[in-house]
Design a protein that fits this description.
Blueprint: H1 2-38, H2 52-88, H3 96-135, H4 139-176
Length: 189
Amino acid sequence: MVFRASQTIHLLALALWIGAAAMSGVVAAIVFPTMRTLDPTLGAYPNYSGDHAVLAAGNIAGRVFLFVDMVQFICAAVALASFIAMLMLGYSLNTLARVARSVILCVALGILSYHLFVLMPGMHDDLKAYWAAAAIGDNVTADAHKDAFLALHSTASRSIGGTTIAALVAFILGVWTCEQRSKPELEKP
């Protein structure tokens, strides 16, 4: 029973991880074009001469991505802990698919770690500095921080995409290699 619970928790954590990462891309794909269409002028940034639509959309998307990063971190930790529990409870890596499952899980964890601990701290600092400089009308500094953020944006997008794909493959392999326990034989009289 504990094994099945670990297996279920593992697959659920992977599913939530995939869903959160995928939805962050959907949010960005909706928010940025919507803001461009609305062409807002933001009262909180009266002296900023840059594109207010990008500023507004980035403010919303930035909060969503920060939340998604927290969800991904929690889901990844739960997926790893539950997989370790499965191994301790007798899940063996006796087939190529099971070995691939563990390798792909490690790949997803590695890409996520790079994203969370290498890319995002600097990008988050640049984003905050961009918003702060825009708020006081320091257009040169705001644009410099925006450019620094955008220089890493495609790398961050690829890391999120790679993490999502790896977690999806781990999920598929997890479902495919679920431990099937046979029913105990009925005792014969």
